[in-house]
Predict the 3D structure of the following.
Amino acid sequence: MESPERIAAMFKALGDPTRLRIFAYLLSLHDETERAIRSESGATVGEICCFITGAPRVSSKVSFHLKELRMAGLITMSRRGKNVICKIVPEACEEVNRVTRSIVRDAREAPTQAVVQVPAREQAAKK
């Protein structure tokens, strides 16, 4: 199991709409059955820019979002000739999926226990 800090970093990275679109796009290209045939189940930075902005040129906005996804451990980036290939990290996807399922399961099992407790010091300050 990943550390809470690493899981939080993954969810924070996915909290941005552009990064979520990039991640979903790369995820749509990732196919476990295809890995045996072709190890390149990813996209070039240029292809991602075309998908996100509609422009064939690499933008600094997309580069920034790719860096954030990479720093969160959700994607890898590797140079192939003149291109940079971006790919999903399957283990990170599995961890995000596992944590999300756990949160949903816990919420269904104990919906009334999901109460946020305010520390005593903060309660005293409100009075």
